[in-house]
Amino acid sequence: MRLHTREKRPMRVVDWLNARLSLIFGLLLVMFLVGVGVSFYAFSIQRHVDDQKVLLREDADGMLQAMSDQETGLRGYISDNNPAFLIAFQEGRPAYLAFADDLTKQLQSGPFRLTAIRLTAVEEVADEWYSNFALTQIGQMQAGHFAGPRSQASVFQGNVLFNQFRAALGTLQEAIGQDLEGYQNQVDTINISLVIGFIVLFMAANAGLLWILRNFTGTLQGQLVRLTQTTQRLGQGERSARVAPLTFSDLDQVGQSINSMADAIERHENAAQESMRTLEQQYALVERAQSESRAIFDASSEAFLFISAGEQVHALNRPFREFFALTGEEVVGMPFADLQRQWEPLFVNPTSFHADLEQDSLDQERHHTRTAIQQNPQYRELAISSIPVRSSTTAYLGRLYVLRDITREREAERLKAEFYALVSHGLRNPLTSIKGYTDLLAQQEETGSLTELQQEFLGIVQSNARRLMALINDLIDLSRLEAQTTVIRAVPLDLHTLIRDVAQNMRPQIEERRQRLSLQLAASPLLVLGDENRVGQILTNLLAFVTNHTPLGGRIVWETRQMGSIVRITCSSSGELSAEDLAVFNRPFLHASALPSSETVGSVLGPSIARSLVELHGGVLQMSSGPGEGTTLTCTLPSSPSQALISEHPSTSPAGDRR
Fold first, then answer.
1. Cis omega (within 30 of 0) on the bond before 377?
2. Which of 88, 407, 495, 597 is most deeply packed, by most CB within 10 A?
3. Residue 580 gets which letter from DSSP?
4. For 620-637, what is each residue's pLDDT tens digit?
């Protein structure tokens, strides 16, 4: 006879634990539901008892108050024979009956047998006082028999009846307290029974839970000990240690994974050592590349300071350290705010410089260049560029400050300006003599009459003398503007009057070229804040430039418009500018070959002078030109505060066309 034994099927820890946890969860759920039910039931009963306490006492007090109101009204009516006292008496009776009815209904919802008996006694006494005494007294008073109701016997009878009511009501309140106390005792007994039952159930559930957990931990401990011992041996360097097969399938899988990992560790140890040697070689290459980059960074003549996105000093080069007598070790890693406190006092205007740095920290997109004067430890004029730095994914990495020493450039510009002024003044004196003598010859008073050919030659000399004088005056203005010595004395000016004067002065040149000038000025006078001579110079230079670049017979339109706190002046023409003409507008000097044969001296330097004078007034000068669109010069000047008064009484006669 052969015995067949069933082999124990391997079980996963998770499956075993899920089965036990399901049982535990079921027990906990049952305990929770029972606890919720018990709590809700006990709460409902206790709340009902509390509500009964409040309602019963309120109804008893209400009955007493209603009877007191009736008794007080009856006494007042009998004493004064004033029907007004009957109102309280008549209103008190319905209130008393309402409280009595409500109390009767409340007694039906609980074990209030004694209270119901006492309530019947109270109602009997109250009805006797109301029906046999109060109504009788009122009837006698209304019949005019005042002596009876006001007699001592009647008063004594009423007091006796009402005192009987008070005594009965006091007995009723005592009965209410006794019945409520008994009701509360019943509720407390029920609650204690429920709590004891729940505690017994809770202890039984905990005992079952404890048994399940002890069974689980005992079963699991043996498997975990094997895993732990093997991992400890591996951790101690015993690479041959392996986990034996385990009963639980998932723990056995963990053991086999540990074995596989141990095999893999052995295989990868040699590879790791090889990788380490490769990394050491790469690290040496990176160190070399960083050293070379640092050398290139330091070799630049410009000073560099890089601030990270976290407002920390990330890098700086040798020129920056030399400019400000700093060392890289004490600055790199420093908060930028701390560097600013050391850096800003080295400049002539630290407040303005600090404001620029604060604006950079607030606006990550800001890209600007400004000039600053360094006073310590050495005098320098610096051009400081602030550039945001972004990664290939446009992530903000920080801000790069590039400082370029422009001390020599500024000195060269000042020398150039002084040279312009020196040459201009040196040419002006002999040219003034030449112009004076040519004017005397042209008058023919002292020299006698001239022939037509002599007059023609003399006219050529006078014309070129005037051009040279205009060029010298422009050179002097340019030298003053570049040296920043031009003074603007701003006063309110009538813009339209200045435009008309300039147009009248330019009239010979415009008529010579058969051009048509149209003044389309604003309807009301416009006042600008500026220097009268300089604003006239701006308008003259702009009109001269447009006139020289408008074809013969072309049209020129001059417009003005008030735009808030500024006045916009637009001078447009039918002429189109070439690349050379644009260069004339954008640069103060041109090679002679770039000028057209009809170009005048004023139109060469005029736009540059006009732009500088406009900017000194706080305005902007712009130009646009395109094929088929003509050319438009737009200039803005600040409006005078007096303009608001003029705007309240605008003129009704706009300016017309002028040829």
1. yes
2. 495
3. H
4. 888 887 777 788 888 998
